[in-house]
Amino acid sequence: MNIDQILDKIYPLSAKSKLVLKENIIEVSFPKHLIIIRADKVEKNIYFIKKGIARTFSTIDDNEITFSFGKEGDTIASLKSYIANQKGYENIELLEDCELYELNTENLQNLFNESIEIANWGRKFAEQELIKAEERLISRQFGTATERYNELLKNYPDLIQRVQLGHIASYLGITQVSLSRIRTNIK
């Protein structure tokens, strides 16, 4: 997915504002298994996935709990760092070699001060990320593991081929054995 498509998906900008924003975005590549964002650190960049997949997780009692995945067109960000300039609670690992678009949050904050249109884009970005987090929370609290698995397949149809089943089971809050049962019952 190219940067214009990603920016437009968040909030349409005029050609002039989009150009100004794109002047602050660089294309970067990182290898599989890199932890691109670390917990307990103020993250200075947000990323948009051009190609690849990532997972967001936290470690509790030496167990990694996956709570989201990102694919082409999605964002990699610590919202706590982005919004409040505070240390985040999440780790984000690249599950494939990835091509990303990188945007420095300090530069972005400066653009917010210079352009109400870009500031509105930033607000829409935060709103969309908040809604995604809320939807994940509600699904986790009220949906069955089978419902969550079906929702995951709907939103990420190729995820099963691209991600270890252990990460998927962790995301669903179940064991790999339970995931195998769910997958068998769905086929």
Q: Profile the largest sheet.
A: 4 strands, antiparallel
What is the assembly state of the chains in this entry?
Answer: single chain
**SSE topology string:** HHEEEEEEHEEHHHHHH
Shape: elongated
Low-confidence segments, ≥5 residues, pLDDT <50?
Answer: none
The N- to C-terminal Cα distance equals 31 Å
Structure commentary:
Helix content is 50%, strand content 24%. It is of the alpha+beta class. Strands 1-8-3-6 form a four-stranded antiparallel β-sheet. The protein has a four-stranded antiparallel β-sheet with strand order 2-7-4-5. A hairpin with a 2-residue loop joins strand 4 (54-60) and strand 5 (63-70). The mean pLDDT is 93.
Secondary structure elements and pairings:
Blueprint: H1 3-10, H2 15-22, E1 25-30, E2 35-37, E3 45-51, E4 54-60, E5 63-70, E6 75-76, H3 79-84, E7 91-94, E8 98-104, H4 105-114, H5 116-142, H6 145-155, H7 159-162, H8 165-172, H9 176-186
Notable traits:
187 residues; alpha+beta; 4-stranded antiparallel β-sheet; elongated
Task: Summarize, please.
The protein is α+β, with helices and mostly antiparallel strands and about 190 residues long. It contains nine helices and eight strands. The protein has a four-stranded antiparallel β-sheet. Strands 2-7-4-5 form a four-stranded antiparallel β-sheet.
